[in-house]
Structures are given as structure tokens and as C-alpha cells.
Automatic annotation (TrEMBL):
It comes from Thiorhodococcus mannitoliphagus. InterPro entries: CmoA (IPR005271), Methyltransf_25 (IPR041698), SAM-dependent_MTases_sf (IPR029063). It catalyses: prephenate + S-adenosyl-L-methionine = carboxy-S-adenosyl-L-methionine + 3-phenylpyruvate + H2O. Homodimer. This is Carboxy-S-adenosyl-L-methionine synthase. The gene is cmoA.
Amino acid sequence: MIQSDPDDLFDRPEVSVRPFEFDADVARVFPDMVRRSVPGYAELVGLSGLIARRVARSGTRCYDLGCSLGAVTRSILRQTGPDVVIVAVDNAPAMVDGLRVRLQDVPGADRVEAVCADIQAVAIEQASVVVLNLTLQFVPVTERLALLARIRGGLVPGGVLVLAEKMAVPDDRGGALLTALHEDFKRANGYSELAISRKRSALEQVLVPERIETHEQRIEDAGFAGHCRWFQSLNFVAWVAWT
Ligand SMILES: Nc1ncnc2c1ncn2[C@@H]1O[C@H](C[S@+](CC[C@H]([NH3+])C(=O)[O-])CC(=O)[O-])[C@@H](O)[C@H]1O
Ligand SMILES: O=C(O)C(=O)Cc1ccccc1
């Protein structure tokens, strides 16, 4: 696990009242926050690297879109050969700064191009793997299809999209159970009732989850030839989609 200060952000009264932002405070606690908030996060990161190991070809690029501090970037770096370039993109300057620091003593880090930019404006070219690990949920819903279609267009034959998202649960007993269990997971990881409810408010309209069927329909509409779901833990789910 990468070094992190403990996440106490939502125990502070002033942080709750404004919408969630990937600023310097969040970047400082992010590894602790994401580990304690996303069930299966370590598996998502590790398995994304293994997917890249299987798929990435020499002379191609792997993209880590919404890379935060580069957990997936480092996972891919460990699993791919010397002729694979990794393009790590985030539009939060504090995240990209943190990524650059964390790459300093990592072997092979010269294969990583760290870019501070909007993923909607970054060219995707010669890509064998494009990872959106918990990132699409922050892109405006109306712009999601265009982004996936552009990713599809930048993939080499045999290339894949790896998409992981918090999902909107169905409005039924199963959905209610998943939501309740996600809160139990946060409680079990030491978050207070207040912190859980404040973060929920801060994320409203910032993180917009969608139903599994909506994601799968969009993957098809974007022109991918096929997809399969390879991960689910409570209300977090991941797919691989291929050309
Ligand atoms: N339009 C955008 N352009 C660029 N970056 C963006 C955009 N929108 C959001 N981000 C960035 O996407 C990241 C989402 S976190 C990803 C975790 C990481 N993938 C991980 O495997 O640790 C997930 C979470 O916090 O739930 C943040 O760093 C944002 O700045
Ligand atoms: O905490 C949540 O409810 C999440 O969906 C995960 C998360 C993790 C880190 C930043 C924002 C959301």
C-alpha cells in the first residue's frame, strides 16, 4: 500500500458543506480513503495489472485515465515489458503532483508519461489497454458515450477497455441490502456515522453512478464487440470490453 495520511476529512465540519473535490486535502489522504471506502479496491488494482499483462503488446500504450496517485499505473508497470508506455492522466493537479513523487523511486518509471489534463481532451492512440478505474462516474453522464467511443477508436486490434464503477443499485430489496452493506463496510473501517453521511452529501451530483444495464448498453453503443463482468464487490463492479 502506498503511504497515506489517515482520512479524517469528513470529521471536519467545514469539509462537509461543499461538493466533493479532488484537492490537496483529498490527495493527501486518498490511499487510506479509497482502501476504507471501496470494497475490493486492492483486487481491482492488482487484476487491472494482470489484464494488462495478458493484453499489452510491445510498441503499444496503456492509459490510466483518472489515475489519482497511480495505483493502477504502478500495477500495469509491474506487469508489462520495457516497450510498453503508460500514459497516466488526471485533471487534479494535487493528484498528478502526488503521482510524480510516488514514481520517483519506482523501477521503470521512465515508461510513465504523467499528464495533468481532462481525459475528455486527451488523445487515445495505439492503445492496447485503457483503464477507467472509478473515473467514468465523475464524467458528466451526457459525455460518457462520446468518451467510450473515442477510447474504442484509439484501441489497436485485440485492445481492451477496463471499466470499474460504483453502480446505482436497483430500487428493490437487493439494492437496499448492497447500499446498507457498503455503509457497514465503511463503519467496520472506522468511519463515523457523521463522516459517512457528510461524504454522501458531498458526493451527490459529483459522483453519478448508473445501473449495470446502462453501462453495458453504452459499452455496446460505443462500438465494442463484446464485454464481460470480471469483478463485483457490493455496489462496485468492473468490466473488460474488447474490440
Ligand atoms: N474529466 C476528468 N479528467 C481527468 N481526471 C478526472 C476527471 N474526472 C475525474 N478525474 C479524476 O478521477 C479520479 C477518480 S478516483 C480514481 C482512482 C484511481 N483510478 C485509482 O485506481 O486509484 C476514484 C474515486 O475517488 O472514487 C480523481 O483523481 C479525479 O481527479
Ligand atoms: O466513498 C464512497 O462512497 C465511494 O464511492 C468511494 C470514493 C472513494 C474516494 C473518493 C470518492 C469516492
